[in-house]
Amino acid sequence: MLKGKRILLIIGGGVAAYKALDLARRLMERGASVRGVLTAGGQEFITPLSVASLTGDECYTDLFSLKDEAEMGHIRLSREADLILIAPATADLMSKMANGIANDLASTILLATDKPVMIAPAMNAQMWDHPATKRNLETLRGDGIHVVQPGDGMLACGEVGPGRLAEVMDMVAAVEDFFGGDNLLLSGKRAVVTAGPTHEPIDPVRYIANRSSGRQGFEVAAALSRLGADVTLVAGPCVQETPAGVTRVDVETAREMEAAVNAALPADIAVCVAAVADWHVKNGGAQKLKKSKDGTPSFEFGENPDILKGLSGLKKGRPALVVGFAAETENVIGHATEKRARKGCDLIVANDVSSATGIMGGEYNEIHLISAVGAESWPKMEKGAVADRLALKIAEILKG
Ligand code: C5P
Question: Is 59 in the active site?
């Protein structure tokens, strides 16, 4: 999503400075390159070394450093970025920006730049509410500066109120929104995504299910939608919120899921993330089954449709790109390669879900992308970042 975007991250002095490290990491996971500038105040909270280690680039601190200026002058720093992001932006830095003061590296860069600037303010609630800060904020908005609103809550000083640095993922979303216009790589494409578990009824009150949370599938739907695709998400029973702009169809059983997927065709892209039950109960009860002295019930199972295989094998109207997921517990690449051939899909996203990995139900995923030409292994990333990277890959393949 942020592939190739260069972000100059100015870190001001505030307890929340430590969050800028996580912010840098999240932006980089999404493909951005991040270069850090740390103010004198910022250095009271975090070190240039931690910024440099994380970004893999020098961390710039001093306007009058002969070495820094010789290597990368402040004018170049201010110009070699697609966005300048200030997090946390202190009341002092906002005041300097609003008044055109340039007396250190950060403020000089900000006065010299011709690039878009975004601030994420963080300060004490009284400072945030002070008329001077309000005037400065208005001036900055008038100057075209983008603002990520601070949150409300317990502040580091012990007071409660507005002024908390926005959550890291909200800052990431603001940056993504900012670049969104350039990134509608899938506009005009239709996508169908399956997600979540299925429930296979035994009787009107009992069912067979699995532990899928639906999280990764919902992230994939959101990522495709962010790239401009028209997405139908066919979801088994799960509590995830519907991503913005996505059409959601709720289903319970595998057979309902298959019908909903077919109803969403034609599509250019199909991504089957759902953990579909392999079997349904053929002789379940039309009424709630009762205990009886004749013993325990015996169930007969019927095979469920394989939605992924069905889509991949369509003679007419096959989506141009069909993607499956494979959760394995050993020999991940080997089993997934075999699965790709058996299902007839174009790509398989394979991961190791053995319990030691913590992937099943967790926030992170570590995947191997299996295509006709082999396997590509991605580093461990948040499920949202995996989805963004997969969506970009899909866009790249469809472009040819
Ligand atoms: O065969 P297995 O369940 O391991 O395959 C996983 C892949 O196949 C996933 O992409 C899943 O969504 C899809 N699948 C399906 N319909 C089924 C079983 C699996 O679409 N009945």
Answer: no
